[in-house]
Specification:
This is Universal stress protein UspA. This protein is an alpha/beta fold and 133 residues long. It has five helices and five strands; from the N terminus they run E-H-E-H-E-H-E-H-H-E. Strands 3-2-1-4-5 form a five-stranded parallel β-sheet, sandwiched between helices. Strand 1, helix 1 and strand 2 form a beta-alpha-beta unit. Helix 3 runs parallel beside helix 5.
């Protein structure tokens, strides 16, 4: 069994990762962490640098779970990357973090979370920061 989590170093990414770790521990599943960026910026705070990658690797190892970290800056969007990895890994669950959006933002189609929820072939667990689960 495999769980895929979309992760960027942000409060929403941390909430998703925390929950994905709990789910992986609970079910004995492999956790695939997808860190994705369009790669269109010289300095991209969404893509893990070497130090952040090492810290994440240590954190997952200390959680006692089987895991893989997938980094991608190939110019595709995060939703596409997460959905591709989930399909390739035959994931049984995708975990994503949600950020609060304005009323206007809610009308805009094509958000990463919305695309994942609508296009995934497996259940999607969406978590909020400090959701108290």
């Amino acid at each position: 069994m495999t769980i895929v989590v979309g992760y960027i170093p942000s409060p929403e990414g941390e909430a998703a990762l925390d929950r994905a770790i709990v789910e992986a521990q609970r079910s004995g599943s492999r956790l695939v962490v997808v860190n994705s960026s369009k790669g269109d910026q010289l300095v991209d705070d969404k893509l893990l640098d070497a130090r952040e990658f090492h810290l994440l690797d240590e954190r997952l190892a200390s959680a006692g779970i089987d895991f893989w970290i997938e980094r991608s800056s190939q110019g595709s969007d995060a939703a596409e990357n997460i959905l591709h990895v989930a399909e390739a890994q035959r994931a049984e669950l995708i975990v994503i973090g949600l950020r609060k959006r304005t009323s206007i933002g809610k009308f805009i189609l094509g958000s990463t979370a919305q695309r994942i929820i609508l296009q995934a072939h497996c259940p999607v667990l969406s978590v909020k920061v400090n959701s108290g689960w």
